[in-house]
Specification:
The protein is an all-alpha fold and about 170 residues long. It has eight helices and no strands. It is about 70% helix and about 0% strand. Helix 2 packs across helix 4, helix 3 packs across helix 4 and helix 6 packs across helix 8.
């Protein structure tokens, strides 16, 4: 990332090549399909380049990268939800109208609610959830990435899960 910030030839291409597949996997884990994940990964890499001067070398690059990826996913999801809402709102006899897709289990709505609930967490809790629960990193790696003791990561995860349950209407844990 230091080479990208300095404008070194080929640095951005090397960074993109190294991280693209990891970004796609991360975004698929958030709920994007393959094409959506690829679009979000491309947008994330554009944001990395656009915000290259805002990156702070004293912070982990992965936190910077995956925060931008999460923002790309949320933007992509909002656009998809708006598009689905607008398509469903078209009268059925209008030319070009698409039939509404059914979501009997409410999975899309539940996932959107969860994404919104995670986005509503304070940053200190959200970072732990994104890296630990969403990315599946073990606590010791989350601690290393965020520069925190493992006990602090566990405590923050506990508080984050409690807040998410309350936000999603599941109430506090027993």
């Amino acid at each position: 990332m230091a080479a990208v910030r300095a404008g070194a030839p080929g640095a951005f291409e090397a960074l993109s090549g190294r991280w693209r597949s990891r970004l796609v996997n991360f975004l698929k884990g958030l709920g994007a399909d393959l094409h959506g994940a690829e679009d979000c990964a491309q947008e994330t890499l554009l944001r990395v380049y656009r915000y290259r001067d805002q990156y702070r070398p004293d912070h982990p690059f992965t936190a910077f990268l995956f925060t931008l990826a999460r923002h790309s996913f949320l933007d992509w999801r909002r656009k998809a939800v708006r598009w689905e809402r607008d398509v469903v709102a078209l009268p059925a006899d209008e030319p070009g109208a698409a039939p509404a897709r059914e979501d009997p289990a409410g999975a899309v709505g539940d996932r959107i609610d969860l994404v919104a609930a995670v986005a509503g967490l304070p940053r200190r809790l959200r970072d732990v959830v994104e890296l630990g629960a969403i990315r599946g990193l073990p606590y010791h790696k989350v601690a290393a990435l965020l520069g925190l003791p493992v006990g602090t990561v566990k405590s923050r995860m506990h508080h984050a899960v409690r807040r998410l349950r309350e936000a999603l209407g599941d109430g506090p844990p027993p």
